[in-house]
Amino acid sequence: MGIQSLPENAAGLGLRRALLGPLRSAAPGSFDFLECAPENWLGVGGRLGDALTELSSKTPLICHGLSLSLGGTEALDETFLVRLRRFLDQHRAPIYSEHLSYCSDDGQLYDLMPIPFTDEAVKNVSSRIRQTQDILGRRIAVENVSYYAAPYQAMAEIDFLNAVLVEADCDLLLDVNNIYVNSINHGYDASDFLARVPGERISYIHIAGHYDEAPDLKIDTHGATVKSAVWKLLDEAYQLYGIRPTLLERDFNFPPLEELLGELAQIRAAQARCTATAAQHAHG
Description:
The chain is built from nine helices and twelve strands. The chain is α/β, with parallel strands linked by helices. It has a single domain (11-283), classed as TIM Barrel (Alpha-Beta Barrel). Strands 1-2-3-4-7-8-9-12 form an eight-stranded parallel β-barrel. It has a two-stranded antiparallel ribbon with strand order 5-6. Helix 4 (119-136) crosses helix 5 (157-168) and helix 8 (228-241) runs parallel beside helix 9 (257-283).
């Protein structure tokens, strides 16, 4: 069985160990794909390894990395990348994505740190993305990340993102929650940012909940239901660029699977609205 691409109207869930049981026993068609962090599964055998293999044999599994540190200056971990390539091939993963950030500096920092928005950083991160793509033998997608401290910014976040995508010639994992969170925390217009994204590079979309620390401070937690302003931004993304595979991220405070599937139904409803609107315009 070769690698399958995801249909544009796919709606998926993050694969977390706490959800393994409910996901395995869910009715067929409850979700269209799953996303896992390969670092949490590489080399895992036994009962957990068997569960992952069973799920990936029935449902497309995409991979979202945590540790490549694309924005860092330490040499890329080529041994890890070779293992990762085998893992992606083994599970026929249609997409591999990573964060547009760095997470190492003489060792893992265990947090995703923002990259300074400079020409030098564009060149550095782009060469690391190209090297990663060469070793993996595939294009990757990079995610626009949430950030709280803003290191030196010679250019706007959207200009930095676009420059990297062109220089590295890679795809984009569009996180609409991160756009919303950053727009509040850093005082820019989320709709303007979204309108300047290169739609042809979007491989899939993330949507998630966040925590309201204060009116002007939102924390990207992935531990709550998606807020209405973020759903609205997802509608905008679909209207601008057409529907794309969309993943609901939830990392802790897990509700019963039925509640997550309820949010997945909201993704499908948004996709259906966009399709219906497009059809009306086509016939109008």
